């Protein structure tokens, strides 16, 4: 199991995995669309130099 850290608005979640090249910070984001209640799910790695999501 991974320990999840939730962002302030509960649309971004962060967790750390131990990969073969060390620790990797992963992000999950729920991005709103133009349709009420419908979100895009975005998965990727956290760019530690900018704290932004880097999609795969």
Give structural attributes:
56 residues, five-stranded antiparallel beta sheet, mainly beta
Description:
A five-stranded antiparallel sheet has the order 1-2-3-4-5, with no helix packed on it. About 0% of the residues are buried. By secondary structure, the chain is mainly β. The protein is built from no helices and five strands. Helix content is about 0%, strand content about 60%. It has strands at about 5, 10-20, 20-30, 40-45, 50-55. A hairpin with a 6-residue loop joins strand 3 (about 20-30) and strand 4 (about 40-45). It has one domain.
Set down the secondary structure blueprint.
Elements: E1 5-6, E2 12-19, E3 22-32, E4 39-47, E5 52-55
Antiparallel strand pairs: 1-2, 2-3, 3-4, 4-5
Low-confidence stretches: none
What count of helical segments does DSSP give?
0
Q: Average pLDDT, to the nearest integer?
A: 91
What is the 3D form?
A: elongated
Q: Can you write the helix and strand succession as a string?
A: EEEEE
Euclidean distance between termini CA atoms: 22 Å
Overall strand count = 5
- Count of discrete domains: 1
The biggest beta sheet, please? 5 strands, antiparallel
Helicity level: under 10%
| Strand content range | over 45%
Rg, Å, rounded: 12 Å
Summarize the structure.
With 56 residues, this protein is mainly β. The protein contains no helices and five strands.
